[in-house]
Amino acid sequence: MELHCRRGETTVMTNPAGTAPPFGRALCAMVTPFTAEGALDLEGGRALAARLVAEGCDGLVLNGTTGESPTTTDTEKAELVRAVREAVGDRVPLVAGVGTFDTRHTTELALAAEKAGADGVLVVTPYYSKPPQDALEAHFRAVADASGLPVMLYDIPGRTGTRIAPETMIRLAEHPRIVAVKDCSYDFLGTQKVLARTELAYYAGCDEHVLALRAVGAAGCVSTVANVVPRQVADILAAFEAGDTARAARLQQRATPLIEAMTDAGLPGTVTAKTLLGRLGLPGGPVRPPLLPAGREATDGLLAAYEECVAD
């Protein structure tokens, strides 16, 4: 499917083979930079976004979980979208995280993201209340109806407590503005069932699945690890697109120790990404409570994994 993402209009049409996916391929789930005092660092946000684009990211996801959306205000979310839009212009799509456990609040955030200049919205499954599938479907349809922006659903049952069932996903794919999925379901069979029966653009939301999901028909990835190694993540997908699957596999394997250190070693990806960005002299700043910074041992391990990933 081809989706022309222009603020205020959405056109969906059959996508001939080889055309670009709706939001790019190598997307970064960007951290939200803060000052040393914990305030929103808009200049840091502009600088980080510009670096990510220069290093190969062809789309950015703002205000997601990695962007500390639970602890940023609605005003800060809109300000970050506007600042990043100023920094990158129209070179890459911006997808704004707007998902909450409240349908009304989520639709308000979607409208605010549209006004701020986003090209799409990321809508996570409502968490804590564990709505059944018919309620999930109604929630996502309400958000998709609220603005003119295309929607990327975010399926991450490990955090939300509720899976978007494949059958629900297939029904939601009928909505003209529900066009993509950030997939953290850890259900390859379920994902392939949806890929086979819809034109939804799937994006791997778990860095260890970047190549595996692309190989079965996904569009690309929304990567946390790309905050610190954007070129390396983009190169995995570029090698696959070029038909060099052996090189793509080598690049994925080379990134594995860093992926494990950043996402599967007991610390949230926000903490590990900001730790490395700080040690590399790049914008990020501290995390907001209840998150805490990484300790010295964890930081040393992250740096060792990073150096292994980027070594020539």
TrEMBL record:
It catalyses: L-aspartate 4-semialdehyde + pyruvate = (2S,4S)-4-hydroxy-2,3,4,5-tetrahydrodipicolinate + H2O + H(+). Its EC number is 4.3.3.7. The keyword Amino-acid biosynthesis applies. Pyruvate binds at residues 66, 222. SMART domains: DHDPS (SM01130). One of its GO terms (molecular function) is 4-hydroxy-tetrahydrodipicolinate synthase activity. It is an enzyme of class 4 (lyase). The active site is at residues 154, 182. Catalyzes the condensation of (S)-aspartate-beta-semialdehyde [(S)-ASA] and pyruvate to 4-hydroxy-tetrahydrodipicolinate (HTPA). Homotetramer; dimer of dimers. This is 4-hydroxy-tetrahydrodipicolinate synthase. The gene is dapA1.
